[in-house]
Amino acid sequence: MKPDNKGIPWFWMSWGIFVLGLLVMAFGISLMIKAEVGSAPWDVFHIGLYQQFGLTIGTWSILIGLLIIGSTSLLDRTWPKLGAFLNMLLVGVFIDIYLWVPFLKTPDHLIGKLVMLVSGILIMGYGIGLYIAADRGAGPRDSLMLVLTERTGWKVQHIRLTMEIVVLSLGWLLNGPIHVGTLLFCITIGPIVGYSLPQCKKLVARLIERGGRFEDINKRKIRINNYDGVSKKAR
User: Fold this and answer.
1) What are the pLDDT digits (tens) for 103-112?
2) Is there a domain that residue 228 lies in?
3) Cα 65 to Cα 59: distance, rounded to the nearest angstrom
């Protein structure tokens, strides 16, 4: 629950949490890619495009996100939201940065790859929880999902499943990395976000409350040794 005194400090804090969430989510995506035992459906599509046409995985994430934002705006007849645009841009940039880091390497053994995969899914789940908890807007794909839900009258889970099947099929046609990790992601990401989101919302609420107390002196605790800086010896 957000306080009534929300203002400029909360505005910048919320955007900071939003960007932090994207950083964490992109790191999880990069770990899954580096594990090389299957990626999330959208990333299977992006990697397939990268393998067939070059550029970078992050660049394809941005280009596909831009296409989705444009399609969503046409369907909804509204201008793109800032949160969706930043999500599209920053996640792609962050993915490329993480994949470029020299020490982030694919493990030599299957156990190491599976550990990296599971770590990536968990980290991604908490990154999603953080950026959603910041309440700065949905990402491009989620925005399209919501608009299609309104337009078709289908349930959210049916729209999401259809979108995942379509992009996974396209990724498969492009020889994207479909493996056990893809199935594990599809099965577990929903429950993980369902668990992480309430925790992230509580964390954000605490940060807001603490920020509110800092801005409002009447809400701070009174310190019995608080004085004007003149020492007792001088008195």
Assistant:
1) 889 999 999 9
2) no
3) 10
- Does pLDDT of 232 surpass 50? no
Q: How many CB atoms lie within 10 A of CB 211?
A: 18
Residue 229 confidence (pLDDT) above 70: no
227 to 81, 220, 231: CA distances (angstroms): 48, 15, 9
- The DSSP code sequence of 53-104 is H-S-HHHHHHHHHHHHHHHHHHHHTSPPPHHHHHHHHHHHHHHHHHHH-TT-
232, part of any domain: no
pLDDT at 189 over 90: no
pLDDT of residue 162 exceeding 60? yes
Domain that holds residue 101: 8-213
- For 75-104, write each residue's pLDDT tens digit: 878 787 888 889 889 999 999 999 999 888
Integer-rounded Cα Rg, in Å, for the chain is 22
Q: Does residue 233 lie within any of the structural domains?
A: no
d(CA 162, CA 218): 53
Query: Quick count: other Cβ atoms within 10 Å of Cβ 92?
Result: 23
Number of domains forming the structure of the chain: 1
In a domain, residue 123? The reply is yes
Structure tokens that stand for 128 in this block: 């999603």
Do residues 204 and 134 make contact, with C-beta atoms less than 8 angstroms apart? Answer: yes
